Amino acid sequence: MIVCPNCNHPNPDGAVQCEACYTPLPATTNCPSCGANVQADAAFCGQCGYNLHSAGVPHVHSPVATTVTPDVPVEVPPLVPPDPLLELLQPDALGISGSTNSHPPSSSLPPTEMAVPPVAPAQGAVAESSPPEPMPTVEALPVVSGQSIPTPPPLEPPPVSEAEVPPPAAPVPTATVARTQLQQVMARLIHVQTDRLIELPQNLSVIHIGKPNDRIPPDIDVSGFPNSEVVSRIHADIRVEGDAHYVEDVGSSNGTYINNLPLLPGNRHRLRPGDRISLGKGDLMTFLFQLA
Fold this sequence. Notes:
Layout: E1 2-3, E2 10-11, E3 28-30, E4 37-39, H1 84-89, H2 124-129, E5 187-191, E6 196-199, E7 206-210, E8 220-221, E9 234-241, E10 244-249, E11 256-258, E12 261-262, E13 268-270, E14 276-279, E15 286-291
Parallel strand pairs: 7-8
Antiparallel strand pairs: 1-2, 3-4, 5-6, 5-15, 7-9, 9-10, 10-13, 11-12, 11-14, 14-15
């Protein structure tokens, strides 16, 4: 079976278009693993889960040579105790200059005279005449302890006496809708040439259309209609599946036409209200399908 991608209607294998919505059906192929029938554009098989895109040449990983670290012993030289004479030769080995290096070492040579630039008078003397500015005061912030403030317990509502308790509301009655018997869909055919109405039998799943014969007696006998000579004794069948009605040709001599298009043998057509069914060529025996 081929499932229609538009309406999910199951179609027989080999069908080109959907019987229900006439959508072109996708091409199918066989799974290389289990042989199941899958769509040509499917990625995985619905039966065995085989990845259909991995059917090409498998990827071969090239071997990678592993790197082996040579086991070479590492020689560690023996520890030599430091020489105390070498430590004394280091600058400031005894820590005499102090912790800071900002002062340069003193020299025994006499100092060289250098021109000293004139020192500008300090502005502090001018500032002494002005009164000192008061220091800004900083307001002390309240100290908040790290302990959390306990939350007061919720207030319980006062007890209500039984006299004050309102009576429970009566449940709203649910409106029950009486189940009415569903009306069965009535299908019928209208003969175009004579405007005669034919009700389709409701107790049959397969309705045979033709003329009296010894093999399959017709459920709809058209021998009394004009131009009945174009209709075969076993001409067409109408199959009922739920609310759907399908018509198919069962090997007639002059063929069956739906809306002036030939119905190929082995295929069936889902009938819709207003479809035109012609038994034989020339549109001489024509019926209109209707639902009531």
